[in-house]
Amino acid sequence: MSLVRYFAGAAEAAGTEAEQLAARTVGELRTLMIAAHGGELEQVLTRCSILVDGVRSDDSAAIAPSDVVDVLPPFAGG
């Protein structure tokens, strides 16, 4: 299982900062996250970047069980 870490609004929508999920691709992982956490996270995910071991990845990207996946919503700052 991969470690999935949620940040900022994604953590709030998921109700957790981290969890272990088993998926072969980012797209499959996205489906699992939505099934587990519902519509609020689904809406947030449309604006998030997903990084697999620090590399921004699209839905076709492969995920290995040892990978760390970060779910990053846009951040404001200055």
List how many beta strands DSSP finds. Answer: 5
Task: Sum up the overall morphology in one term.
Answer: globular
Helix-strand category: alpha+beta
The side-by-side strand order for the widest beta sheet comes to 2-1-5-3-4
> Which architecture name does CATH use?
Roll
Per CATH, the class reads Alpha Beta
Calculate the mean pLDDT score and round it.
Answer: 95
How large is the count of helical segments? 3
- Unreliable stretches (pLDDT < 50, length at least 5) are none
Strand content of the residues, in percent? 25-35%
Computed over alpha carbons, the radius of gyration is 11 Å
Biggest sheet: strands, sense, closure?
5 strands, mixed
The CATH homologous superfamily is named Beta-grasp domain
Question: Could you walk me through the main structural features you see in this protein, from its secondary elements to its overall organization?
Answer:
With 78 residues, this protein is an alpha+beta fold. The protein has a single domain (2-72), classed as Ubiquitin-like (UB roll), CATH 3.10.20. The chain is 33% helix and 26% strand. The protein contains three helices and five strands; from the N terminus they run βαβααβββ. The protein has a five-stranded mixed sheet with strand order 2-1-5-3-4. A hairpin with a 2-residue loop joins strand 3 and strand 4 (55-56). Helix 1 packs antiparallel against helix 3 (39-45). The longest helix is centred in the middle third of the chain and has 12 residues, at 26-37. The model has no long low-confidence stretch (mean pLDDT 95).
